[in-house]
Amino acid sequence: MPGVAVKLYSVFFKLLLKHRLQNLISISAADGLSDSFGVSTRSDESVAAANPSFTDGVATKDIHIDPMTSLTVRIFLPESALSPPEPDSLRHKDHFHHQTRSDRRHSYGPNHNSPAPAERNESRRNSYGCNNENLEPYGGYAPSAKRNSRKLPVMLQFHGGGWVSGSSDSAANDFFCRRIAKVCDVIVLAVGYRLAPENRYPAAFEDGVKVLNWLGKQANLAECCKSLGNRRGNGVEVKKLNVQGQIVDAFGASMVEPWLAAHADPSRCVLLGVSCGGNIADYVARKAVEAGKLLEPVKVVAQVLMYPFFIGNNPTQSEIKLANSYFYDKPVSVLAWKLFLPEKEFDFDHPAANPLAHNRSGPPLKLMPPTLTVVAEHDWMRDRAIAYSEELRKVNVDSPVLEYKDAVHEFATLDMLLKTPQAQACAEDIAIWVKKYISIRGHEFSY
Question: What single Pfam family name could you report for this chain, choosing any that match (predicted)?
Fold first, then answer.
């Protein structure tokens, strides 16, 4: 069972969350609260400022990617990106030794092994954590055009918060994404999608797809910039390039995000959703399957659903037995769904709520990417998440489930639980599975 501190914190958490949700419901009913621009963070929530230097092994920056909405992303770039690119001769060597890990959770599916630690860049650093030649005037990291940069996979992360709270730059989400960027050795794009009730369904889902398309646009712009730069070097005049060889808009601002242009490999893209963010990730995965080659060079190779916010009209055993469980209990979650779904569409078998609903549109399950599902023993949503994973396995999709004993909803992402051994273990377990699909050496990891 969870400890006394967790139980007490859960009581206060649910009281505050219920009060917030009820206030939003009353305000929404009175004023409408409809705003197409929307909000992606709440003023009363603790946020972490972006830090574009590698003071703790990860540099971050915020980008507002849609001028018509509040949609933003926070980029988490691990310091390992500064390491020299791996020689081709080493890419296919299987020189990792793995040791089975089975002490921290029960796994539905094959066993897996643990990878070696990620490489760290040990070259000379200045006080900002960057090489001197890679320093912007404001003290942040800037990729050098003089050397070939290491390419890392990209992970799109969708935060939790019951549709109405949370953000890409919250203190808890910042800590979690830094941890994931380091253990998985990936560039994390934390998506600051629009919150409800200002923007109800399908706003958050559309924002997720928009970020995936933006990633593809960035990759194409970076390749175009590289091609045009080569042409200019051959004496060809290119009017859209500035003195640094970057594609610029009408105001002279660069259209290419330099960190992604230098270090991102969008052909190895992973989706990770936390709580209600898991619902968004699954939707984005379906849209990626539907788009197919239209998304190139972006390719979604896997997704991770961490205690997804699934629900349905026919209650499961866990929904009955654990309805009053810790933190996000069922009554509070129902209020969140009332704020998220349009009034005329409110239905627990809505495609956004129930992944196995009969009216769910999209590609067949057999076309879905490999899906890792993380569930907690004391979470009323666990059974539906497990059922979805089982349906994926029936059509031969790699979809293991990791169930953590004595764990609660958001045990690996909630602020007071982030530094627990179980939260760290969960991040490491995710890294083990994800690396099976993002390793440039091929499928050398087993799970």
Answer: Abhydrolase_3
Question: Does the active-site annotation cover 275?
Answer: yes
Catalytic residue among 174, 409, 429, 439: 409
Are 155 and 270 contacting, i.e. CB atoms less than 8 angstroms apart? yes
Is the peptide bond preceding residue 197 cis, with omega within 30 degrees of 0? yes
Q: CA–CA separation, 293 vs 398, rounded Å?
A: 22
Tens-place pLDDT, residues 1-32: 677 888 888 887 888 887 888 888 777 765 65
Q: Per-residue pLDDT tens for 268-292?
A: 999 999 999 999 999 999 999 999 9
> What is the pTM for the complete model shown?
0.85
Q: Is 379 a catalytic residue?
A: yes
CA 108 to chain centre: 23
In angstroms, the CA 307 to CA 278 distance is: 7
Residue 83 bears catalytic tag: no
Measured CA to CA, the distance from residue 157 to residue 101 in angstroms comes to 25
Tokens of 367: 């076309």
Give the residue among 311, 281, 283 at the shortest CA–CA distance from 379: 311
Q: Which of 275, 325, 399, 439 is catalytic?
A: 275
| CA angle 283–47–406, rounded 5-degree value | 65
Token pair for 226: 């590289």
